[in-house]
Write a structure and sequence with these properties.
The complex is a heterodimer of chains A (444) and B (740).
Chain A (H helix, E strand, L loop, with lengths): L1 E8 L4 E6 L7 H11 L8 E4 L2 E8 L2 E8 L4 H19 L4 H6 L1 H11 E2 L2 E2 L4 H7 L13 H12 L15 E14 L5 E15 L5 E6 L2 H4 L7 H6 L5 H9 L7 E4 L5 H7 L2 E3 L4 E10 L7 E10 L3 E10 L6 E10 L4 E8 L3 E5 L4 E10 L3 E10 L13 E8 L8 E7 L7 E15 L2
Parallel strand pairs in A: 8-23
Antiparallel strand pairs in A: 1-2, 1-5, 3-4, 4-5, 6-7, 8-9, 9-13, 10-12, 10-22, 11-13, 14-15, 15-20, 16-19, 16-21, 17-20, 18-19, 21-23
Helix pairs in contact in A: 5-6
Chain B lengths: L16 H14 L10 H16 L8 H7 L5 H14 L4 H4 L3 H7 L5 H11 L5 H14 L5 H17 L1 H6 L2 H7 L6 H16 L4 E5 L1 H10 L5 H11 L7 H11 L8 H15 L5 H17 L5 H17 L19 H14 L5 H11 L5 H17 L4 H13 L3 H17 L8 H5 L8 H13 L7 H9 L7 H17 L1 H4 L2 H11 L4 H16 L1 H8 L6 E2 L7 H8 L6 H4 L3 H4 L47 E5 L31 H14 L2 H7 L14 E2 L2 H4 L4 H4 L11
Parallel strand pairs in B: 2-4
Antiparallel strand pairs in B: 1-3
The chains are: A alpha+beta (444), B mainly alpha (740).
Family (chain B): Belongs to the adaptor complexes large subunit family.
GO molecular function (chain B): clathrin binding
Protein name (chain B): AP complex subunit beta
Chain lengths: 444, 740
């Protein structure tokens, strides 16, 4: 497992060096600095030199590095590094050079707690915050043996993510369904790829130890007769076209695959597709899912790009909103690539603002509010400088970003969220839907 | 609060007076406060500054060791933690000072606060100093039975730590037996920690074997759901030590593990994949296998929505799993299409996977996609895309024409590196489909002046030589290259030699002036042994019997294939037992990358479905482990798994002995200089004439390419694909190793 955790800033200064095994020597910090940070040719997150492997993740302006010897579980290494980032965010708001420099002691203390002999231990922020505290908060609780036992039970228990003594006057739960819709459209307008990566984030403010049941318009749950079981249905995504259409009409969604938070009883889901769990307190990601059938694309983009000789490119980009006129998208940004030798541009838009960003080689067209069913057009012209060594322009795809509330590209809906608790309190549940652009690219 | 940090100075050795001053200042601050400072806040602040300077100021802080130990016993957990951290960091530099902390740690291991007990135990076992290790043994035995699970889990890891410090001492004690007994603990976190510790010890010992029987394995699977995500990973890793004796048991376990594939943590997902793939070796029945394979696909694809590093790992493993179980990933190839912003290592791996998944049904979509990639900016990636098109032409015969058309369109864009790459792959297409696509030769030769890379030049020269009779000005083209013969690389020179000979054989009148010249250069004016040898060979061939020479040089050669991505069965099997580990990123035999890694193999059992090495290319005898190591259904009295220190070490896997090739007896030809050239030539002649016809027959020219393999086929290897500028590709990005 891990021999050490190192953190560097962009200049290559070693901010944190924690060895968990005697084979993690201090000079490894110099080796990483020389071989990775100051070597522009390194393009892989994993580097093995002799018997030492450096696995690194770049986050904000720091490098987080795990040192391993021998053939370690690489998935565990990267999951852990990302968990460390998540913990940093949870403790300091964000994990960057400044946060590290202001919290050396806490970071070392955390590392000592969440790794033992290089094996990740409980990394749940709620539990950790019970006894690893930030500036100003006294850790008086940990000095008292009975309280300490409560912490240790919590850190090693089956419900390690939840304290048992949580109380709220008003019991509420918020569910956010966030979908990233990915599109890759060819220059001829055919959809090469369209899929949805969904994420369900929950904020639970519930007392005691609530048992939640969560229902979606999951096809396999709603039409159990159609296939013999979840296992046979999950693999065969390409069923008959006609039955697909009827399913969509009936308002159910085929989830290609789901992944759940630690708290969800996976056995239950595998057997009868019921999502049942005891939530952590506060915000957490309940599940992720993927859908590839009947993806509703919120925007249709029609670009016409003409290269006129070697000195000019003409653009005409039309974008149409494909959703109900009652809805509107916000922060719609269309990035239109320009050749590297663009000297100047002119733009005209029927809505929003367009601006040339030379450092990105893009014309950026922003529309703050985009109502459903409306259509806008941009006309632009890029004047090119002549170059002695003319190389063909690679025409990178045009890309979109946006967010659209109360809309899911997959058609997913939350049917219910039930909360069972022994005190039988009533609770208020809220649900919100949002679709964002994941990688929404149109070639031209 | 902002902490002052000494400026970073990479030079070791001389310490500036400034830093000396800093140490003195911190010492003063640490000892300040006095009795008025009830909460020790002054000490805390000083300690925080010391910790902050620990990493960043080149060990100057070690001077404060005695002062820090002085603070260790203060009644504040916060201070204690900082002091312990300091101790762990510097004990190896100053063991004699560190010893003063030992009594404090021993006391703390008996503290009535479980957090303090665990902290002290964790700290003392990090210190690589003999007295510390010795002092840990007795308290550890007590703490392994502590009534607090948090302490017990810490104690479990502590055994592995002590094993790292001193193998012998642990093996001679009863610690491993005690650890084994802890597997019966009622707390799942403790059990998973014990397993992690046992597996860690197993990995570093030659003399210890780890076995788990079905009942124990089944029990472990049942506690999976109650463990943290990391604990689940440890249990899953340990399950690899279970050898199913019965197909139904293996199936049941695999099905019970399958729900883990929906976990959010990719370590749990990939380790579950590993265990399920492993168990599948012991499961009979096509139907069950297919159903399990179907369960593996969606989670692998879902990992593509994780951060790029995890995507990369998932993709590398997909390449691996696909070779073992082609049923996996039968879904839409388009999920593996590259996003414009994917990091290069993800893109290149997706490309490889796309190549593997392309069939004659989806090749249209794939080709359109590859064409797009060929216009991107990253040269390395573009080259790979062009290569892939050429390899697809070789892989899917019915679509070869389509691939060639795509290649020619790309060539027309006249981007030099695309043209060169395309030339190389078109040469391979000619080798695969002789006499089918020669109509495009003129198209290829149009760009001959743009070629400046040796591989591309060699490719086009090969084409000229092979088709010398169909290219009108073949002699002229060759002459152009021959003009710079001495400046070319050996690769190109070899190609020129062969091409010239081919030209002469096919069009003697045109070649007769060139051949003697080239043969003379190759035999007399070069240092390269291969070039000389080949030069002499052609010379003799041509001078002895031109008709035979024609048969030999222009004879039919076995076609090449594109199925080279395939790992050899033995490596494949080994890597499949290591899904999710670093080795799967490199896709190379594990001992090549990680020499110290303990080998894993499929152990035989009545339920094992196939012989470990499917093709029979490996030598079964030295591959199977000694049967003495077969776990007889664990009769352990001590719980879930047993780890035993038997006197029967597992013999490391030895590489098979090199095959016995018929090597002609070495003779004393020492053609070292032009002076004894004739002598050497005579000696060679004498030697060859002395070889009996039988010996000649045993050389069996028909089998040259295959090297004794059942099928004699040349392959376009993956390595060949990477021959280009590995330094530009960044080595590691392509999965290659960089050694110091």
């Amino acid at each position: 497992m891990l021999s050490g955790i190192l953190i560097f800033n962009q200049k290559g200064e070693n901010l944190i060096f924690r060895a968990f095994r005697s084979d993690c020597r201090p000079r490894l910090a110099d080796i990483f600095r020389i071989q990775v940070i100051s070597n522009p040719q390194v393009r892989s997150p994993i580097l093995t030199l002799g018997s030492t492997t450096f696995s690194h993740v770049k986050h904000e302006n720091i490098y987080l590095v795990a040192v391993t010897k021998s053939n370690a579980n690489a998935a565990l290494v990267f999951e852990f590094l990302y968990r460390l980032i998540m913990l940093g965010k949870s403790y300091f708001g964000k994990l960057d050079e400044e946060a590290v420099k202001n919290n050396f002691v806490l970071i070392y203390e955390l590392l000592d707690e969440i790794l033992d002999f290089g094996y990740p231990q409980n990394t749940d922020p709620d539990t950790l915050k019970m006894y690893i505290t930030t500036e100003g908060v006294k850790s008086a609780i940990a000095n008292n043996p009975t309280d300490s036992s409560r912490i240790t039970q919590q850190a090693t228990g089956a419900l390690s993510w939840r304290r048992s003594d949580i109380k709220y006057r008003k019991n509420e739960a918020f569910v956010d369904v966030i979908e990233d819709v990915n599109l890759l459209m060819s220059a001829t307008g055919t959809v090469l790829r369209a899929d949805v990566n969904g994420q369900i984030v929950m904020r639970a403010y519930l007392s005691g130890t609530p048992e939640c049941k969560f229902g979606l318009n999951d096809r396999l749950l709603l039409d159990p007769g159609e296939s013999s079981g979840p296992s046979s249905g999950r693999g065969g995504g390409n069923g008959l076209g006609t039955s697909k259409a009827t399913r969509a009409a009936a308002g159910s969604v085929t989830l290609e695959d789901c992944q759940f938070h630690q708290c969800v009883k996976l056995g239950r889901f595998d057997a009868d597709r019921i999502i049942s769990f005891v939530p952590p307190d506060g915000e957490f990601e309940l599940m992720r899912y993927r859908a590839t059938e009947n993806v509703n694309l919120p925007f249709k983009v029609h670009p016409i790009v003409r290269e006129i000789g070697t000195t000019k490119v003409e653009y005409s980009v039309a974008i149409k909103a494909n959703y109900s006129s009652k809805l509107f998208a916000t922060n719609v940004v269309i990035r239109i690539p320009t050749p590297l030798n663009t000297a100047k541009t002119t733009e005209r838009t029927s809505q929003g603002r367009a601006k040339y960003e030379p450092e990105q080689n893009n014309i950026v067209w922003k529309i703050a509010r985009f109502s459903g069913q409306s259509e806008f057009v941009l006309n632009a012209e890029a004047t090119l400088t002549s170059m002695t060594h003319q190389k063909a322009w690679s025409r990178p795809p045009l890309s979109l970003s946006f967010s659209l509330l109360m809309f899911t590209s997959s058609g997913l809906l939350v049917r219910y969220l039930k909360v069972f608790e022994k005190n039988n309190y009533s609770s208020v549940k809220w649900v919100r839907y949002m679709t964002r652009a994941g990688s929404y690219e149109i070639r031209f | 609060m902002f902490l002052a940090v000494a400026p970073f100075a990479p030079t070791y050795g001389s310490r500036s007076s400034n830093q000396q001053g800093k140490v003195a200042e911190l010492r003063l601050e640490l000892n300040s406060g006095g009795k008025k400072d009830k909460n020790y806040s002054a000490k805390k602040i000083a300690l925080k500054k010391i910790v902050a300077n620990m990493t960043m100021s080149n060990n100057d802080m070690v001077a404060l060791f005695p002062d820090v130990i002085g603070c260790m016993n203060l009644p504040s957990l916060e201070i204690k933690k900082m002091c312990f951290l300091f101790l762990v960091n510097y004990s190896r530099m100053k063991p004699e000072v560190a010893l003063k902390a030992l009594p404090i740690l021993v006391d703390d291991m008996a503290d009535n606060n479980p957090l303090v007990r665990a902290l002290a135990l964790r700290t003392i076992s990090y210190v690589h100093v003999r007295e510390f290790v010795e002092a840990t043994f007795q308290p550890l035995k007590r703490l392994m039975q502590d009534n607090d699970p948090y302490v017990r889990k810490t104690a479990a890891f502590c055994v592995a730590k002590l094993y790292e410090h001193d193998k012998k001492m642990v093996e001679n004690s009863d610690l491993i037996d005690r650890l084994n007994r802890m597997l019966k603990d009622e707390n799942p976190t403790v059990v998973s920690s014990v397993l992690a510790s046992l597996v860690d010890i197993w990995g570093r010992s030659e003399s210890i074997s780890l076995t788990i029987d079905y009942v124990s394995a089944s029990k472990l699977v049942s506690i999976l759901a109650d463990c943290s995500e990391w604990g689940q990973t440890y249990i899953l890793e340990a399950l690899m030590a279970y050898v199913p004796q019965d197909a139904a048991e293996a199936l049941l376990l695999a099905e019970r593990i399958a729900p883990r594939l929906s976990h959010q943590n990719s370590a749990v997902v990939l380790t579950s994949c590993r265990v399920i793939l492993y168990l599948m070796n012991y499961i009979s029945g096509e139907k069950h296998i297919t159903s399990l394979c179907k369960k593996l696909s969606p989670p692998l694809v879902t990992l593509l929505s994780k951060p790029p590093e995890v995507q990369y790992l998932a993709l590398r493993n997909a390449i691996l799993i696909l070779q073992k179980r082609p049923e996996v990933l039968r879904n839409d190839i388009r999920v593996f299409f590259c996003n414009y912003n994917d990091p290069i290592y993800v893109k290149v791996t997706k490309l490889e996977l796309m190549f593997m998944l392309t069939t004659k049904d989806n090749i249209g979509v794939v080709l359109a996609e590859l064409r797009e990639y060929a216009t991107e900016i990253d040269v390395h990636f573009v080259r790979k895309a062009v290569r892939a098109i050429g390899k697809l032409a070789i892989k899917i015969e019915s679509s070869a024409k389509q691939c060639i058309d795509t290649l020619l369109e790309l060539v027309d864009a006249k981007i030099p590196y695309i043209v060169q790459e395309a030339t190389v792959v078109i040469r391979n297409i000619f080798r695969k489909y002789p006499n089918q696509y020669e109509s495009i030769i003129s198209h290829v030769l149009r760009n001959i002046d743009d070629l400046d890379e040796p591989e591309a030049k060699a490719a086009v020269i090969w084409i000229i030589g092979q088709y010398a009779d169909r290219i009108d000005n073949s002699d002229g083209l060759l002459q152009d290259y021959l003009a710079t013969f001495h400046d070319e690389t050996v690769e190109v020179q070899l190609a020129l030699l062969t091409a010239t000979v081919k030209l002469f054989i096919q069009r003697p009148t045109k070649g007769q002036q060139l051949v003697p010249q080239v043969l003379k250069w190759c035999t007399e004016e070069t240092d390269d042994p291969d070039l000389r040898d080949r030069g002499y060979m052609y010379w003799r061939l041509l001078s002895t019997d031109p008709a035979t020479a024609k048969q030999v040089v222009m004879g039919q050669k076995p076609p090449i294939t594109a199925e080279s991505e395939k790992l050899d069965p033995r490596t494949l099997e080994e890597l499949c037992l290591n899904v999710g580990t670093l080795a799967t990123v490199y896709l190379k035999p594990i001992h090549q990358v990680f020499r110290a890694a303990r080998p894993r193999r499929l152990l035989p059992s009545p339920a094992l479905q196939r012989s470990p090495v499917e093709d029979g290319t490996g030598n079964m005898l030295d591959y199977n482990p000694p049967t003495a190591n077969m776990p007889a259904a664990s009769t352990s009295n001590s719980g879930l798994a047993t780890i035993t220190t038997t006197g029967d070490p597992i013999t490391p896997v030895n590489a098979p002995p090199p095959p016995n090739l018929p090597i002609p007896a070495p003779n004393s030809v020492a053609a070292s200089g032009p002076s004894n050239m004739n002598e050497a030539a005579d000696a060679a002649d004498a030697y060859f004439s002395g070889i009996g016809s039988q010996q000649m027959a045993s050389l069996d020219l028909g089998d040259v390419g295959g090297g004794g393999m059942p099928q004699s086929q040349y392959v376009v290897t993956q390595n060949q694909q990477q021959v280009y500028q590995p330094h530009l590709a960044g080595g590691a990005a392509t999965g290659e190793l960089l050694l110091l």
